[in-house]
Design brief:
The protein has 159 residues and is of the alpha+beta class. It has one domain. 48% of the residues lie in helices and 19% in strands. The chain has seven helices and five strands; from the N terminus they run H-H-E-H-H-E-E-H-H-E-E-H. A hairpin with a 2-residue loop joins strand 4 and strand 5. Helix 2 packs antiparallel against helix 7.
Length: 159
């Protein structure tokens, strides 16, 4: 009889401790999210950028690439350089770093808008209306024709 009471006490204790745990960080299926964005909001041919070459395409991120601030990055850019379509997923190692990386990304987009402004104003406008979602340690950007739908897809991807 004592054994049954002990088991019930253990189960009750585990249930209470399990309920008191801090909410865990959201998980994200990066591959599935990219596939869905590419299928539903981007009609252009996209190329995945090797993480080792990010500094070339994102000079404002160079300090964060060098000091190992970023845990993971996934970037797709339009195969045609005259188009602005882009998907960028960045996960920082530490939540306290997210604002600095976000500022660097805003600098990147200001530069892209300025570079398109003179010869491709529609592309500059597309960049300025980009989708952006910040969740936990993730920064996710999508430059496409339907940023509202991209935002909905991104938000739905977090589990």
């Amino acid at each position: 009889m004592h054994r049954v009471h002990f088991m019930l006490l253990c189960i009750l204790t585990l249930a209470i401790l399990g309920g008191c745990q801090e909410e865990s960080e959201a998980t994200l299926g990066v591959g599935a999210l990219c596939e869905r964005l590419l299928a539903e909001v981007i009609d252009e041919e996209m190329l995945e950028i090797d993480p080792g070459r990010l500094g070339k395409f994102f000079p404002s991120l160079q300090p964060y690439l060098a000091n190992d601030t970023l845990e993971s990055t996934t970037v797709f850019l339009c195969a045609e350089a005259v188009l602005s379509h882009e998907i960028t997923l960045i996960k920082v190692k530490n939540k306290e770093q997210i604002n600095r990386v976000k500022l660097a990304m805003e600098e990147h987009y200001k530069t892209r808008i300025a570079s398109f402004a003179d010869y491709a104003p529609k592309e500059a406008e597309r960049v300025s209306k980009r989708s952006f979602v910040e969740k936990d340690r993730w920064l996710i950007y999508a430059i496409c024709d339907d940023p509202q739908k991209a935002t909905e897809i991104i938000k739905a991807a977090f589990k």
